Amino acid sequence: MGDGIPAVGAGASAGEAGSAVEAVFREERGLLLASLVRRFGDLDLAEEVTSEAIEAALRHWPAEGVPDRPGAWLLTTARRKAVDRLRRDQAYAARLAVLRADAERAEAVAPPADAAGGGALPDDRLQLFFTCTHPALAAEDRAALTLRCLAGLTTPEVARAFLVPTATMAQRIVRAKRKIREARIPFRVPGADELPERLPGVLQVVYSVFTEGYAASSGPCLQRPALAEEAVRLARILHRLLPAERESAGLLALLLLVHARRDARTGPEGEPVLLEEQDRGRWDRAMIEEGRALVVRALTGGPAGPYGVQAAIAALHDEAADVESTDWAQITALYDVLLTLTPSPVVAVNRAVAVAMRDGPGAGLALLDALAGEPRLRAYAPYAVARGDLLRRLGRDGEAAEAYREALEHAGTGPERAALRRKLGA
Fold first, then answer.
1. For residue 143, is pLDDT > 70?
2. Residues forming beta bridges with residue 39, ordered by sequence position
């Protein structure tokens, strides 16, 4: 991105300009923030001037036309607003100068990142990833802050991803930014000796970004492919950076094996298509083969990690010709392993569905009903959908309809709600 504002094209309508701003906000917000943080050393300032630049675009673009390089236009505008802010507030500028000096000092003493064997991080966003996942932050705050700042999710979207109220998530994000500021956490790439310890937090964040792209928490579309592809890209960079880390291979494998089904997961009108109804000829076979090779690497050389196990489950789905020939016994066994590695009610729901495919709907329903008291599943629509499907298979249509109505209350996207209404209509 250059320092000059690119020339704008022909005038655009307000609707076109608004759509362009939204696209830039979603696709380039993380890069814009990271560039501003790298230059000014303050996340709050970067967020504020990014928002002001978006507002300026909404004022200027409808009349002047959308720039050929809208991201560059926003970056230039945001930089100017940041400089104006610092000129007006000398105390603020002095504090940022101290933070910047701390960051430069930390960079001077840090071991070179290429000692890890993968070269320096090739993207400012990943420097911000490692900052947002610093061990000084609480685990839930790390993922929330990174999804908000780098993936461009709104606070309500982040809240839905973690199954907590929006107000609770807003407090987490504010708390995390305050901790970065008060603890003077530097915006830098960790040294090679720190990377293995810091990697799990970053992998979790990348996985959360992919999850939102693969199954959107809200909005008019079931998937957000650009977000999922961004997560795949980041996972590739992390794997190149630390090729000896088996869980980085496992995460990349998992993302590839799941993302390979993207074109078959929705119908002509954007409606969800269940796994058993998908046209497997539309799955990306090259992506599946790449993912399968990475699974072998992730499971070789010691005890498996959670991403390697999940990737192995995804590989079994992708290798099967249809649902009936899927190795549900092995999938169930892998879920047993996963539950020991990462005990979670969501994993337990997925295991129950696998048991239902292996042993029949009654066996799966018993496991789901045993989870009924789990608070984290009360607003988790897939749990109610799974119960409804198994009840329907058992001929208990009235109870199935009740479960589908419960799922409808918590479904986040328009296509999910439409599919549930069709189930109820049936």
1. yes
2. none
